From TrEMBL:
Similarity field: Belongs to the X(+)/potassium ATPases subunit beta family.
UniProt GO BP: intracellular potassium ion homeostasis; intracellular sodium ion homeostasis; potassium ion import across plasma membrane; sodium ion export across plasma membrane
Protein name per Swiss-Prot or TrEMBL: Sodium/potassium-transporting ATPase subunit beta
Annotated transmembrane regions: 37-63
Organism, scientific name: Megalops atlanticus (Tarpon)
Lineage: Eukaryota, Metazoa, Chordata, Craniata, Vertebrata
NCBIfam families (UniProt xref): Na_K_ATPase_bet
Keyword rRNA processing: no
Cell compartment(s), UniProt: Cell membrane; Membrane
Principal cellular location given in the protein's record: membrane
The protein's role, per its UniProt record: This is the non-catalytic component of the active enzyme, which catalyzes the hydrolysis of ATP coupled with the exchange of Na(+) and K(+) ions across the plasma membrane.
InterPro entries the UniProt entry points to: Na/K_ATPase_sub_beta, Na/K_ATPase_sub_beta_sf
Length: 292
């Protein structure tokens, strides 16, 4: 039958497969002679070595143009973000006054964050600068003026929120402190015409009657000009970011309050930015539970 003719026996198929792997007559392996395989391997070897060489050369040339002390390209120069401390997983501060453990985590986070701001620590590592003016430390031409000095930000400047007089930062009294910091941007000069930038906080509209009175430390929520410009981790090793503490004096308990803090500086954009609507601002949820 025609059907049987086309159908090779399994023995025949095995034999032709074996011959494909290694054909002793033509001395071919997988259908190619040794020299053919050799040429193919040689081609790929040369090809990949050339590719690797090109990559290494490009990398080398690029690294030559990089400066250890400042970024070659830096995005978002005019619009740094804000961040809060304490910050656990989420941007929220939620605790119950009666449940010590629920707020102790915040107190511990603040203790840890503020340890390098201890006056003794600041006096050891940083300088007392002239306030209300930028602390510019120019390189003179090619000669680098590194490392650069940094200004003291004493923990005591946070007064009621320093954790020194009230070591619970107000959490126990239902008057918690939240620290605001402006993310570091190398070379940024926030503020304008001798006016220091300042931080202000408020509630989202529907919560405005629940947020109560706020108090800022240092006074007016100022980020003094002397802490700018920042020259980068490598050039300015001891830099302490300036902070603003906000103390919530009379929040309505057992209610969610959506708080938004923003930086106010003529030259730091905070509104209507299409690329980054969090530029220059931070929002978080505040809720203090208290048994009636
Ligand atoms: C900072 O000061 C606090 C309170 O005086 C103290 O408990 C803490 O050990 C100090 N931390 C450092 C790193 O000096
Ligand atoms: C920081 O504190 C130290 C010691 O308490 C003090 O000598 C220094 O003047 C303070 N610096 C600033 C900038 O207030
Ligand atoms: C940084 O702090 C160390 C002490 O921890 C000090 O010896 C050094 O001079 C400081 N560097 C600058 C640039 O201020
Ligand atoms: C805070 O702001 C008010 C009004 O803008 C001003 O009169 C006062 O001098 C400022 N206080 C400080 C310490 O900058
Ligand atoms: C605290 O806020 C409540 C309203 O939420 C208000 O009735 C009360 O007078 C405020 N207390 C102080 C001391 O401002």
């Amino acid at each position: 039958m025609a059907k049987d003719k086309n159908k090779k026996s399994s023995g025949e198929m095995m034999a032709s497969f074996k011959e494909f792997i290694w054909n002793p007559r033509t001395r071919e392996f997988l259908g190619r002679t040794a020299s053919s395989w050799g040429l193919i391997l040689l081609f790929y070897l040369v090809f990949y070595v050339a590719l690797a060489g090109l990559f290494a050369l490009t990398m080398y040339v690029m690294l030559q143009t990089l400066d250890d002390y400042k970024p070659t390209y830096q995005d978002r120069l005019a619009i740094p973000g804000l961040m809060i401390r304490p910050k656990l997983e989420a941007l929220e501060i939620v605790y119950s006054i009666e449940d010590t453990e629920s707020w102790d985590v915040y107190v511990q986070a603040l203790d840890e964050f503020l340890a390098p701001y201890n006056n003794s620590q600041q006096v050891m590592t940083n300088y007392e600068c002239l306030p209300d003016r930028y602390f510019v430390q120019e390189d003179s031409g090619e000669v680098r003026n590194n490392p650069k000095r940094s200004c003291q930000f004493n923990r005591t400047m946070l007064e009621d929120c320093s954790g020194l007089d009230d070591r619970y930062y107000g959490y126990l009294d239902g008057k918690p402190c939240v620290l605001i910091k402006l993310n570091r941007v190398i070379g940024m000069l926030p503020g304008k015409d001798g006016q220091s930038p300042f931080v202000s906080c408020g509630a989202k509209r529907e919560d405005s009657d629940k947020i109560g009175e706020l108090m800022y430390f240092p006074p007016n929520g100022t980020l003094n000009l002397m802490y700018y410009p920042y020259y980068g981790k490598k050039a300015q090793v001891n830099y302490s970011q300036p902070l603003v503490a906000v103390k919530f004096l009379n929040v309505t308990v057992n209610e969610d309050i959506n708080v938004e803090c923003k930086i106010n500086a003529d030259n730091v954009e905070t509104t209507g930015n299409e690329r980054d609507k969090f530029a220059g601002r931070v929002s978080f949820r505040l809720r203090i539970n208290k048994r009636e």
